[in-house]
Amino acid sequence: MAMLNSLGANGIAPRDSETGSREQPGLAWNVFFSQVSNLLKFRIGVVMVLTALVAMVITPGSQPGALEMLVLAFAILVSAGSAGAFNQYFEVDLDRRVPRTRNRPFVTGYFRRGPMWLAIILLLLVVGVGSAALVLNLTAAFYIFLGAFFYAIVYTVWLKRRSWTNIVIGGASGSFAVLAGAAAVDPNIGPVPIMLALVLFLWTPSHFWSLAIAKNKDYARTGVPMLPVIIGNRRCAEVVLVNTLMLVAIAVLPFFYGMNWIYLLAAAGGGGYFIYHNWLMLRDPSPRVAMKSFFASLVQLVTLLVGAVLDVWILG
Questions:
Q1: Is residue 314 very low, low, confident or very high in pLDDT (cuts 50, 70, 90)?
Q2: Residue 144: which H helix or E strand, with range?
Q3: C-alpha distances in Å from residue 81, one per residue of 45, 48, 55, 113, 148
Q4: What is the pTM of this model?
Q5: Which of 86, 87, 176, 273 is the 20 to 30 Å CA partner of 118?
Q6: CA 208: distance to chain centroid?
Q7: Residues near 259 by Cβ (< 8 Å), separated by ≥ 6?
Q8: What is the DSSP string of 73-121?
């Protein structure tokens, strides 16, 4: 609390009050941008941007130009960032009790939690959704809003501390990014983007529950009802495997709706790799193996997205 009380009026920690020393300007800016990236959860935002752009590329219709693609990326990144910042603003009490999240800027006191930040978070959401509405269309803007709403309100406020379904329902935020990318091309969304959105919906629990198995003790410490805490790591690994099997089954379906063999190879290959690591986690649900399953989920998603783009560019 002493650190929180010593922050400057601009919400950023001042120079060392005892030594009077100042960080070098370049280092100070590097730290500032690192803290902003942490606060806005830019890594999650980048994944959502990539899924939206892929959905834009594979959706039949008149392809938007560079401006539309840049605005889509900007709108999703900023809106997802606003939701990520609200998540950290709301969960300071949880974050300071978990080693993995103790370095977040509201916990460390680098940024001072207060009404100013709520205004900034709301402004980011308005800018992101508004830019999509002005340059793209209202349907795409609405999906971008729903993505931020589901993460900030449905997941963070409503479900995370109450139900094991938190990441299942709240994870729909990633699906809305896919729908936003498709709607930017054609508001009447076809079957392939819908299937890709379903893939993202099922991918999120398998991805996150693998991490939750590895970090079971952290969630148990905070009282958050993540599935491994409720049913144990091995039972949760069984659920993850079943969920991933459904995920991969849906991932190959676009092949029967116009996608070609490059996509099929990517969907089957990346999916098989993820299933294999789920199976290893079922045999040994230890933190080390669970983290390998977590990273395998990223390989699966990237393989699928790259395969979809190459399929359209080469064979489409």
A1: very high
A2: helix 138-149
A3: 7, 11, 20, 16, 8
A4: 0.88
A5: 176
A6: 10
A7: 58, 192, 308, 311
A8: HHHHHHHHHHHHHHHHHHTHHHHTTSGGGTTSHHHHTSB--SHHHHHHH
Q: What is the maximum span of the chain, computed from C-alpha positions, in angstroms?
A: 68
Tokens 């998540």, residue? 87
How is residue 257 annotated by DSSP?
G
Contact 109, 14 (CB under 8 A): no
Residue 19 confidence class, pLDDT cut points 50, 70, 90: very low
Residue 159 gets which letter from DSSP? Answer: I
Q: Where are the domains of the chain?
A: 190-316
Summarize the confidence of residues 270-282 as an average pLDDT: 98
Of 82, 156, 154, which Cα lies nearest the Cα of 118?
82
- Check residue 190 and give left, alpha or beta (phi > 0: left; psi -120 to 50: alpha): beta
CA angle 72, 75, 80 (to 5 degrees): 120
Q: How far is CA 158 from CA 195, 274, 279, 314, in A?
A: 27, 30, 32, 44
Burial of 1 (0-12, 13-18, 19+ CB in 10 A): exposed
- 206's tokens: 């398998």
- The Cα-based distances of 270 to 25, 32, 129, 171 in angstroms read 44, 37, 33, 21
Q: From CA 138, how far away is CA 258, in angstroms rounded?
A: 27
Token duo for residue 93? 């009490």
Is the domain spanning 190-316 CATH 1.20.120? The answer is yes
